[in-house]
User: Which sequence fits this backbone?
């Protein structure tokens, strides 16, 4: 070994040593020079743009590969051979001797006792398909394949999409809209050359689909081309979707809404039946790349399959009524459309029964809001000098300046009401107008968020969740939020909430500014006067039942009256009643809502004087 | 509105806007107020804020005098620097003007010291807008 080689060798040795030390600490896997069938690739991984294909290409020369484990965002990865002897010959040939593809970095390898147990879609072989998907191999003969391909006439201009070429029969699929115009069928119907489809399905034992397609899309892919992940528009096409693969094999990737991925090999001349869950609850697509990774020869190792020209025939049936009621609303355009109009209804309701009302009652409302709540003040006192605390729905800003003594915070408030924001600025509070479902803040900026008596004014589950998502977004890692919402149940463990106690009937006292329920202070200024709604809580001019103040809630979504003091305070007739919309929360409802937002963890949940409250922490 | 508030605002929620930061600041009325200087507060705030956005905002409204264009080395012990930052962060108050989204040009008015960041439902991304197609 000459001097130069010796120094390279030394460098590689020390690199290997350091890598073993730090990767074994990180993965809890025993690593070293003792040969095993598993190899750690120390200085190349997904974070350094080494792909699984590169690993397979590099290592398959030395034996049959059992698995490759690529770790997201890591600078290292693992691979296993079936045989230890192959691992040894790869190690001897590559370690410190060969460069990684596209680099001038020498490979540093080590042996591993095992590989990390992470969900790896490529390791999940034998071939699995998403529920409801069937691949019928050899569905057409070589002669039929040739005839089908021959039948198509491609020219360079027509049907050229970014990543593939298409032809439509029956109806044209409109890409921007993802639908078809069922009023205007194409001149060319489904060609008679495809008539074999239905009888062939029957002979292959799938006669349950009396399948007579009226729409056909033919795709032609050249090597390197693909189709982005998509779901065939639910409201436009029936179940199932049939897809015939011609000229070459390809891997189609299926993905469900939770992110689970299943790659499915579609062999040349096979028919894929995509139905049920696989049709409605999974997207499918073909990656634009020049090779696919496949499990060759019945589960005997991973290899690369070079792409070739491929033609697919996708047969679909139009849905007569453009409605879908599947159980996968996350991918369902029809249900999303409904959800969208529900959101608009919710926004409309909030506008009339929350925002407008607060503008009208803001002065009176502000007068009744001065006594801060002890638990909330305690939360404010946990922050240190130089931290940022955002008050979402700050009202008149009564939680400003509640920090511990000698602590200087940057506290900023946001509220939808212009009048209440004016009240805040007059008190020297930094405030803005804004919306709790679209917070106008940078991500990760806040050490703390207060959101007191706000989320119960949002009129749909999705909007309430979005408000929590926004709080989670603006919190820094480890940042905490305190959220209060009104509880439907005003009696916990047989103790009346302060809100109920304030009823004349219950306490024989006029409600004053004693410590009161967080979002109900004075909201029935004169509960004795509500006799008109005592007998019937539905009023024909209002969209929701009206709650009787100082009583338990009969409904989850209610309008709560607010009697505005008139100019002439003594005159009863001068009192104007406004109705504020509330969604009052069931036990655990707030906690469950927060658990739909994965970025945060619920540290504490409790019932506090007629409110449900959670303390959240953003995960580091 | 203090420039510290400007420093944390973003118009990212608007449809088609990917960063929405920093917002362009136009001021038609500014007042300068006295705020007690707290060196601990300012030096803890420095790593949180976007300093170049602060500098540019101060410059755009002509209140960058004395503010260096980059964070001073060893700023925790540099009272002159901390005081200059303190002044710009907390003492310069924009009473009226507007904030403009750098990507869409949407303007958010500032009146009586209050930025109006309210948006209409048709300006923002729909809830659950992930579309598989």
Assistant:
């Amino acid at each position: 070994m000459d001097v130069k080689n010796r120094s390279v060798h030394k460098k590689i040795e020390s690199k290997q040593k350091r890598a073993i030390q730090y990767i074994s600490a990180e993965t809890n896997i025993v690593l070293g020079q003792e040969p095993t069938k598993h190899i750690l690739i120390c200085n190349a991984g997904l974070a350094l743009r080494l792909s699984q294909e590169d690993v397979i290409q590099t290592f398959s020369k030395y034996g049959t590969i059992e698995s490759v484990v690529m770790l997201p965002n890591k600078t290292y990865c693992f691979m296993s051979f079936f045989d230890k002897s192959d691992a040894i010959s790869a190690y001897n040939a590559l370690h410190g001797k060969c460069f990684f593809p596209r680099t001038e970095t020498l490979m540093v390898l080590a042996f591993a006792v095992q590989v990390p147990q992470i969900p790896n879609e490529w390791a999940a072989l034998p071939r699995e398909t998403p529920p409801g998907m069937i691949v019928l191999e050899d569905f057409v003969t070589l002669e039929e394949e040739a005839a089908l391909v021959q039948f198509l006439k491609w020219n360079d201009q027509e049907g050229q999409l970014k990543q593939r070429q298409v032809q439509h029969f029956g109806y044209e699929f409109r890409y921007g809209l993802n639908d078809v115009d069922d009023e205007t069928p194409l001149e060319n119907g489904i060609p008679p050359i495809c008539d074999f489809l239905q009888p062939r399905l029957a002979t292959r034992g799938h006669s349950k689909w009396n399948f007579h397609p009226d729409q056909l899309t033919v795709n032609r892919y050249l090597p390197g081309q693909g189709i982005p992940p998509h779901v065939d528009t639910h409201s436009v096409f029936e179940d199932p979707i049939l897809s015939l693969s011609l000229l070459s094999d390809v891997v189609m990737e299926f993905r469900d809404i939770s992110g689970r991925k299943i790659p499915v090999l579609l062999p040349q001349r096979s028919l894929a039946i995509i139905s049920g869950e696989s049709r409605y609850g999974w997207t499918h697509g073909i990656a634009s790349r020049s090779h696919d990774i496949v499990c060759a020869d019945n589960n005997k190792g991973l290899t690369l399959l070079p792409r070739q020209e491929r033609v697919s025939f996708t047969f679909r049936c139009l849905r007569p009524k453009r409605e879908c009621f599947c159980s996968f609303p996350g991918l369902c355009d029809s249900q999303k459309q409904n959800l969208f109009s529900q959101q608009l209804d919710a926004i409309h309701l909030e506008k009339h029964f929350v925002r407008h009302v607060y503008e009208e009652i803001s002065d009176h409302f502000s007068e009744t809001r001065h006594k801060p709540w002890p638990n909330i003040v305690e939360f404010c006192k946990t922050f240190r000098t130089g931290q940022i605390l955002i008050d979402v729905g700050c009202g008149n800003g009564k939680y400003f300046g509640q920090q511990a003594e000698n602590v200087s915070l940057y506290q900023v408030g946001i509220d939808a009401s212009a009048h209440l924001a004016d009240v805040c600025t007059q008190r020297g509070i930094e405030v803005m107008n804004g919306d709790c479902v679209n917070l106008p803040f940078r991500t990760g900026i806040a050490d703390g968020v207060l959101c007191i008596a706000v989320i119960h004014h949002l009129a749909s589950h999705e909007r309430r969740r979005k408000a929590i998502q926004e709080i989670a977004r603006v919190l820094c890692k480890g940042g905490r939020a305190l959220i209060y919402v009104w509880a439907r149940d005003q009696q916990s463990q047989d103790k009346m909430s302060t809100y109920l106690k304030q009823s004349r009937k219950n306490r024989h006292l006029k409600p004053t500014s004693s410590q009161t329920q967080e979002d109900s202070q004075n909201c029935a200024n004169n509960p004795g006067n509500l006799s008109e709604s005592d007998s019937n809580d539905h009023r024909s001019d209002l969209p929701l039942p009206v709650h009787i103040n100082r009583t338990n809630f009969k409904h989850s979504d209610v309008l709560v009256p607010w009697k505005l003091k008139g100019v002439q305070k003594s005159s009863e007739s001068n009192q104007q009643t406004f109705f504020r919309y509330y969604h009052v929360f069931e036990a655990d409802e707030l906690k469950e809502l927060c658990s739909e937002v994965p970025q945060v963890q619920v540290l504490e949940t409790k019932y506090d004087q007629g409110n449900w409250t959670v303390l959240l922490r953003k995960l580091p | 509105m203090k420039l510290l508030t400007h420093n944390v605002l973003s118009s990212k929620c608007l449809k088609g806007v990917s960063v929405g930061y920093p917002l362009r600041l136009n001021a038609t009325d500014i007042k300068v107020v006295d705020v007690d200087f707290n060196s601990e507060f300012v030096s803890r705030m420095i790593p949180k804020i976007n300093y170049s956005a602060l500098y540019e905002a101060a410059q755009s409204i002509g209140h960058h005098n004395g503010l260096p264009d980059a964070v001073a080395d060893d700023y925790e012990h540099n009272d002159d620097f901390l005081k200059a930052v303190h002044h710009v962060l907390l003492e310069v108050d924009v009473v009226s003007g507007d904030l403009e989204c750098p990507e869409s040009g949407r303007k958010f008015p500032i009146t009586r010291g209050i930025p109006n960041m309210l948006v209409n439902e048709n300006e923002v991304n729909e809830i659950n807008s992930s579309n598989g197609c």
